[in-house]
Amino acid sequence: LQTTGPLLMIISMVVGAVIGEIIDLNHWITVFGDWVKARTGNAGDPKFTYAFITASLTFTVGAMGVLGSIQDGLTGNYQTLLLKGILDGIIVMVMVSSMGKGALFSFIPVGITQWLITAMAHIAAPLMTPSAIDNLSYVGSILIFCVGIDLIWPGKVRIANLLPAIFVAMGLTFLL
To answer: Which long-range contacts (CB under 8 A, 24 or more apart) does 90-94 make?
Structure first.
């Protein structure tokens, strides 16, 4: 991966975290996870929402999901997303066996997010330079690291509140 420098990554993460904390995305994804839990008859499962959030974030911020969606939006080539779907299917089986049924329902926010990124990439095709995609991937890799930290020490990093950093990185690329 290439980027204009670590400063861009740091600024993207800080500004993205501030935006995420103001919006409190972590709260909203928890509310949505609780809603899915209630609607699917899993109200008695104490691990449902945690598994839902962890799987959703793991599959959403990964490089294949973000870059595959951008590739689909820019060129119509969905092969990366197809491969990601196959890999996600295998990984979600492992997550369900270790964390619970909540991981199964991660397809909802993942599908919505990937559709949004694909649509935005299609609209913003003239602005999507290789530098913008590299910076987006750089920040996405940091977010994947944060998901790993959260798996080891649950609740220490509010990963959903860091998601705006991806879009801040793209924006800063255009400004610089």
So the answer is: 91/58, 91/59, 92/55, 92/59
DSSP state of 155: T
- Per residue in 94-124, pLDDT (tens digit) is 999 999 999 999 999 999 988 988 888 888 7
Handedness of CA 38, 41, 46, 50 (dihedral sign): negative
Contact 157, 146 (CB under 8 A): yes
Asked if 51 contacts 103 with a C-beta cutoff of 8 angstroms, the reply is: yes
CB 48 within 8 A of CB 117: no
Where are the domains positioned within the chain? 6-175
How many residues can be counted in the chain? Answer: 176
H helix runs in the chain, sequence order:
6-23, 25-39, 48-60, 63-75, 79-99, 107-123, 130-152, 164-175
**Greater model confidence, 17 or 172:** 17
| Residue 21: other Cβ atoms inside 10 A | 14
